């Protein structure tokens, strides 16, 4: 591996890691799904993670001297994110008749993270603290063939209805979304979510079709009739 340094804001690194972790750690995953794909490309640090039902790609701007392409275990990702102090809520003085309020303060504002890979791991420095964690070769990632999922989705022109489990969708959106809207494209058995300008995800459909679900015309007859007039 060519020695290089990745430099980016510490908060941006932590946020990117937390987005990846939002789709990891479900019960009985494939062993390789305990890892996230961690790489640099076109001025970005990218991460890809999956639990077989959800596949997330997320990125943040970063300065990298050379390409880095490795796998990092989710427990080590949590340790890396832990180098960045949490945001704090600071009480705001108010008059007796006003409702108490707080403002957010980020102790990591202005802090940089430096990531230096070596032959078998990466060293991450935030402030005065450096943590080294082992990595796995990216060649292992090919064994679960996640790239094929992206390719088959992007090249498909067939659009149809699908159904999601809210337990899969809600944690993902709450951890990743930074805008008011989520764009969903329905294609075959997966749904592509454009969650924000930094993250997209594939969501696998459940094992039943839209025909198994209640019909809107049956549940909301008055409302739909009113809308058709």
Q: Would you kindly provide a written description of the structure presented here, covering whatever features stand out?
A:
With 229 residues, the protein is of the alpha+beta class. 23% of the residues lie in helices and 35% in strands. It contains 6 helices and 15 strands. The chain has an 8-stranded antiparallel beta sheet with strand order 12-6-2-3-4-15-14-13, sandwiched between helices. α1 (10-21) packs antiparallel against α2 (74-81). It is flat, with a radius of gyration of 21 Å. The termini are far apart. The mean pLDDT is 77.
Chart the SSEs and their pairings.
Elements: E1 6-9, H1 10-21, E2 35-41, E3 44-50, E4 54-61, E5 63-64, E6 69-73, H2 74-81, E7 88-92, E8 101-105, E9 112-117, E10 121-126, E11 129-134, E12 136-137, H3 146-154, H4 166-176, E13 183-187, E14 190-196, E15 199-204, H5 216-219, H6 221-228
Antiparallel strand pairs: 1-5, 1-9, 2-3, 2-6, 3-4, 4-15, 6-12, 7-8, 9-10, 10-11, 13-14, 14-15
What is the alpha-carbon Rg in Å?
21 Å
**Helix proportion of residues, in percent?**
10-25%
Please report the number of helical segments.
6
The secondary-structure element order is EHEEEEEHEEEEEEHHEEEHH
Gross morphology: flat
Strand content range? 35-45%
Taking pLDDT < 50 over at least 5 consecutive residues as the criterion, the unreliable ranges are none
Kindly name the structural category: alpha+beta
Q: Give the number of DSSP strands.
A: 15
User: How are strands sequenced across the largest beta sheet?
Assistant: 12-6-2-3-4-15-14-13
Please summarize the sheet with the most strands. 8 strands, antiparallel
């Amino acid at each position: 591996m060519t020695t290089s340094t990745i430099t980016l804001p510490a908060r941006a690194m932590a946020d990117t890691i937390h987005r990846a972790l939002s789709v990891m750690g479900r019960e009985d995953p494939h062993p390789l799904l305990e890892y996230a794909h961690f790489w640099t490309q076109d001025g970005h640090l990218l991460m890809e993670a999956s639990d077989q039902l959800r596949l997330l790609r997320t990125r943040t701007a970063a300065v990298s001297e050379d390409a880095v392409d490795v796998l990092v275990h989710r427990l080590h990702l949590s340790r890396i994110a832990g180098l960045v102090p949490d945001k704090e809520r600071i009480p705001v003085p108010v008059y007796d008749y006003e409702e108490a309020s707080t403002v957010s303060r980020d102790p990591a504002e202005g802090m940089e993270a430096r990531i230096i890979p070596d032959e078998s791991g990466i060293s991450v420095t935030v402030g005065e603290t450096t943590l080294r964690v082992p990595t796995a070769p990216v060649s292992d990632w090919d064994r679960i063939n996640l790239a094929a999922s992206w390719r088959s989705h992007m090249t498909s022109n067939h659009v149809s209805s699908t159904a999601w489990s809210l337990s899969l969708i809600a944690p993902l959106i709450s951890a990743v979304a930074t805008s008011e809207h989520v764009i969903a494209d329905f294609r075959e058995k997966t749904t592509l979510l454009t969650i924000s300008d930094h993250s997209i995800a594939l969501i696998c459909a459940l094992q039943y079709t839209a025909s198994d679900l209640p019909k809107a015309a049956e549940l909301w007859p008055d409302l739909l009739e009113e809308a058709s007039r």
